[in-house]
Amino acid sequence: MSRNRDYILYFYGYFTVQLIFIFFNVYLPVYFFIVLDVDRSELAIIQFFSYLALLIKPVIAIYFDKISPRNIKKKILSLSSVGIIFSFYLIILSLSYLILFGIFFGINIACTSIMDVMIDKLIIEFSPNEKSKDTNALLTQIGSICGAIVPNLLFFFLFSDIYSYSTWNLFFIIGLISLFPLAAITFFLRKEILVVNYEKEEKIDSTKPKIGLKSIILMSSVLFLFYSERIYEYPLEPWILNKYGEYYFSLFALLLIMLIIINALGLILGGIISNKLDRKKLLTISMLIYGILLIIVPFTNIFLFFLLFAIIQIVSGIIVINIISLMISYSHKKVFYFQIMALFGIISIILFIPLGTYLSNFIKTEFIIMTAGVLKLLALIPILFLKVKPKE
Predict the structure, then answer these.
(1) Which helix (H) or strand (E) holds 69?
(2) Where are the alpha helices (DSSP H) in the chain?
(3) How far apart are CA 219 and CA 74, in angstroms?
(4) Which of 163, 191, 217, 324 lies 20 to 30 Å from 301 when distance is taken between CA atoms?
(5) What residues have CB less than 8 Å from 341, skipping those under 6 apart?
(6) What pLDDT, on a 0 to 100 scale, did the predictor assign at position 290?
């Protein structure tokens, strides 16, 4: 199978992951907090156990690190794609029953994690130089951006009443239908994925200098603190709805699309300037701006709120490109090392999403967002000690 044909799968894989993310992490909080008014403490406990499914990533990574991409079987992708679709369907049916929701949500997370690892494996294998690292990271991020736009368009055109159960059901069903092409794509794949000339790329890669365990530990710390921003993930959208009203929340769907496009520009900008400027300085400045803006943004009016979030999206794109590229460098083309670093991002998600849901019971969302900004600033400490290969 040609490289271009492979990218169709990887693009739609990331499209699927991000589409599910927007459904479950942007609009589902509104459904849970505003429409169903669920017990947030109970939901936080359910979230904690559901997100533990993310820990399957390092285990799967060890398995895939022992085999060549040629031997990644078609049936693994097919089963994971079917699992994603079927668990999404069961989640829709169980939204009013938190325990069942947690079980099926965990299954969905596990299936998407398997697909994530497979894509990460291929990104690492085919990133022999700085330019290819940024290109591969950019391709997967574009798939994510496209997947993020679809649910927002659906929400804007479907909803006239935020409390309409029938509209919410239609919203989730259309989301489910959007996942069907994934199963078709994996079903019609050949039995082996990606046939390339490994010898050529290995020769290029053999000149890469080794970076020690210290850099991996520092990068893991950066990832843990970077993903701590997920603490405001569930409280954010209900807070916007309560603070600015249903009319502005409807516009929020369109504004979110604009923010996603702006984030794409940030990714493109990051890909362009990262190879021309010092990665460490760029990451330091970007993280500093990100943290300061998160501290300020919850205390602004609605117009300044979205303006500052637009700037945050540009900065976020630059940070993501550089983090992924540095992770690839430190992993030495071994997906296991890559996933060890990513594991600390996973642990951060497992801890901070439920924590934010729980804290929203008795702490104002403004202070939860501000806390995320402080944690972002703390990420500057390990960044300052990172060892980055000088530009050639």
Answers:
(1) none
(2) 3-22, 28-30, 40-51, 56-65, 74-93, 98-125, 130-158, 165-178, 180-187, 198-205, 213-226, 233-244, 246-273, 279-296, 302-331, 335-359, 365-378, 380-384
(3) 33
(4) 163
(5) 216, 219, 220, 223, 327, 330, 331
(6) 94
Q: How far apart are CA 275 and CA 282, in angstroms?
A: 11
Q: DSSP assignment of 35-62, as one string? A: II---HHHHHHHHHHHHGGGGHHHHHHH
CA-closest candidate to residue 205, choices 329, 93, 321: 329
- How far is it, in rounded angstroms, from Cα 294 to Cα 289? 9
- Two tokens, residue 288: 């500093």
Of the candidates 278, 286, 273, which has an alpha carbon nearest to the alpha carbon of residue 222? 286
Q: How far is CA 247 from the centre of its chain?
A: 28
The residues spanned by each domain of the chain are 3-384
**Tokens standing for 123?**
């990104």
Q: What is the DSSP letter of 388?
A: -
Q: Which tokens hold the place of 362?
A: 């008795």
Cα 120 from Cα 13, distance rounded (Å): 11
CATH class, domain 3-384, is mainly alpha
- The amino acid sitting at 282 is L
Q: Which amino acid is at 194?
A: L
Query: Per-10-residue mean pLDDT for the chain, 392 residues long?
Result: 59 84 91 93 96 87 63 71 93 94 95 80 62 64 82 88 91 92 70 45 48 82 93 91 78 81 75 74 91 93 86 85 82 74 92 96 94 94 81 52
Q: Which among 358, 375, 11, 331 has a CA at the least distance from the CA of 223?
A: 375
Q: Are 64 and 121 in contact (CB under 8 A)?
A: yes
Q: Model pTM?
A: 0.83
Q: What is the pLDDT of residue 104?
A: 96
CB atoms within 10 A of CB 35: 15
Q: Residue 202 has what pLDDT? A: 43
DSSP-derived secondary structure letter, 228: G
